[in-house]
Amino acid sequence: MSETSIDNKTEELIRVQNLVKYYPVTGGVFRREIAQVKAVDDVSFSIAKGETLGLVGESGCGKTTVGHTILQLLPATSGSVTFEGTDVLSLKGAELKEMRRKMQIVFQDPYASLDPRLPIGESIAEGIKIHKMGNADERVDRVIENMRRVGLENYHANRYPHEFSGGQRQRIGIARALTLQPKFIVLDEPVSALDVSIQAQVLNILRNLQKELELTYLFVAHNLAVVEHISDRVAVMYLGKIAEMAPRDELFSNPQHPYTQALMSAIPIPKPNRKRERVILSGDVPSPLNPPNGCRFHPRCPIAKDICSHEEPEIKSLVSEPKHKVACHFTEAATQ
Amino acid sequence: MTTKIELLPNDSATDYRTNSLFRLTMRRIVRQRSAIIGGTILLFLVLVAIFAPAIAPFDPNFVLIGHEDIKRRSDPCIHLLGCPEDQPQHILGTDGNVRDVFSRVVFGTRISLMIGFTTVGFAILVGTLLGSLGGFLGGWIDNLIMRIMDVLLAFPSLLLAIAIVAVLGHGLQNALLAIGIVSIPVYARVVRASVLSVKEQEFVSASRALGGSPMHVLFRRILPNAIPPLIVQGTLGIATAILDAAALSFLGLGAQPPTAEWGTMLGTERNQVFTAPHLVFYPGLAIMITVLAFNLLGDGLRDAIDPRLKN
């Protein structure tokens, strides 16, 4: 698989190469491994400093697993993740702990991501306590500083998670991730559990923080409108593989992969009279336990031909737009 | 967040007692009638145990022969209820060795509560350690620990306790150890199940992502959240432990005479159940009340902690 070329002007922060994550399925009396769930199967991309890469796909396509594997919350089956020249996946012990300061995560479920027994000030302070940064007063200052950044007031520090709304909790989760002053944050569907009105608020906070702190985001989501709002580039995942990856405007104006086209046509447009062509996919996502041969999308693809069922398409750049990469046999003049 | 509320000084960040989870939980517990009844009885028993020397009119092991003109196994005599004034007062009568039964029952409270708390304390400590290691680490360690627990659970607990006492030799201490050992698996299972469910939650992953060591994650994040079911199980377990200890003592394997222990009192006077029923009735009643108190409290706690009943 070819690698993502990065604009030479921008500095690459993180590079994911051929990342693979299989979950073993055990069964029988002796719990032998009888199958593998191919959650992430050969995914490569890189993110430049200060950039936001949106990672979209339907549930179960492996996008969350990608985020967790990059942070070593899950062990990768194979592949590599390079962060500022360091191979993250080989780190252990103290080195890994040090790396954790640079890479943080905001979780999807604001109700489960905070320890219900800790006042949120303590939750936010957990990272700096673990890393023994500063004395007690400095820690309080740092916690308050980060709470202010996400629009919380310092008296909130004494309160427990159950006293906050979902949006507030998500901002608490962001503040917690910020305390270690990371360079890179995985945003694991940070707004999908929130009301639409709150989503915009949280997204704006994330954007402002990115500007202020020069953060780099991997934004995992299933909502294309949200991704369009925040991302610089977008990668579309299907069944553990990247189907298409392009700069945001290019992807949304010129989607090449039939799966991306179907996704695009599903975005609601607030103009009830406007007619448009809908690409409606039939069937369900196949099980990652036993993904289809050839192109993984072929059983549901409206333009599938013979070749799709036995030959897996490589991800290639478009001639017209080298930053636009598609894994489909039938893209316009696809080249290596 | 458009409304701005007046800021409090920074140091308020360190004081969060005003609305602690503990208080919220206490409020829920207070709403459970059975917990209140059980807790009240238990409080009463604890006070009796603490002030036993002040409450009991006699030393529990003091043989009254030669000090009072009284027969063995004399009936209860309460002056207020019409017992002749010339007869010495023993409100629950005297036993076969002419000792004051009331004093013995009162002092027995101490031993029974001590048995309950020490055995369950021991079992919870060991059980929590084993269960949390198993649940947290998983793999063959988990398998090994839980299969050993399964073996222990396969025996009827009292039978196993008897076997352990038979090996170690009889006596109160060994009986405590035996009861402690047989109750370990229950706690190990409860803790393991709880740890398994908590460790999948996102705040645990968050702690790992922040750089928390496995020990930090287990002891600071997972265990505190896995404890509530253990409290319920422990309260109910104390009742069982007291009952088991009484049974061992009844069989002569636990507390040895002349110790004033309810099970021992029952055991030594069991043949007099028809001629002097008060000698077995009162220790039996004491056991029943104590066990009932812990069961009521445990049930109430369970209902209070059950998330489905929140608010």
From TrEMBL, chain A:
One biological process term in Gene Ontology: peptide transport
Domain ABC transporter: 14-264
Keyword ATP-binding recorded: yes
InterPro entries for this protein: AAA+_ATPase, ABC_transp_ATP-bind, ABC_transporter-like_ATP-bd, ABC_transporter-like_CS, Oligopep_ABC_C, P-loop_NTPase
Entry annotated with the keyword Transport: yes
Highest rank taxon of the organism: Bacteria
Keywords assigned: ATP-binding, Nucleotide-binding, Transport
Signal peptide location: none
Molecular-function GO terms, alphabetical: ATP binding; ATP hydrolysis activity
Family: Belongs to the ABC transporter superfamily.
Official protein name in the record: Dipeptide ABC transporter ATP-binding protein
From TrEMBL, chain B:
Keyword Cell membrane: yes
PROSITE patterns given in the database record: ABC_TM1 (PS50928)
CDD domains reported in the protein's UniProt record: TM_PBP2
Domain ABC transmembrane type-1 intervals: 109-298
Protein's cellular compartments: Cell membrane
Membrane protein topology class: Multi-pass membrane protein
Transmembrane segments: 35-56, 111-139, 151-169, 230-255, 275-298
InterPro entries (alphabetical): BP-dependent_transpt_permease (IPR050366), MetI-like (IPR000515), MetI-like_sf (IPR035906), OppC_N (IPR025966)
Gene Ontology cellular component annotations, sorted alphabetically: plasma membrane
Family affiliation: Belongs to the binding-protein-dependent transport system permease family.
Descriptive protein name: ABC transporter permease
Species of origin: Candidatus Desulfolinea nitratireducens
